[in-house]
Design a protein that fits this description.
This protein is an all-beta fold. Helix content is 0%, strand content 39%. Strands 1-6-2-3-4-5 form a 6-stranded antiparallel sheet, with no helix packed on it. The chain is globular, with a radius of gyration of 15 Å.
Length: 89
Amino acid sequence: MGGLGGTVELMARTQPEGGGGGMRAQVGDRIVIRSAHVDEPVRDGEVLEVRGADGAPPYRVRWSDTGHEALFFPGPDATVHHLDTAPDD
């Protein structure tokens, strides 16, 4: 990118499908779970491993709030935020 001196910029792209029905992720993506209740926090974690075929669930995720790693099967409240590398001009 012009003016960045060769710095790689990361951009997030959200995949709106929930429930794992068409969800695809790769290592390094973020899983975000939005609560159905106003008083509950949003939860997110990093995808460490993809166990399904072609990026499908389940995923091994490290949760940012606890550092706990778990095998995760997405529900309808989950989205995946893909990290893309922008072109380096």
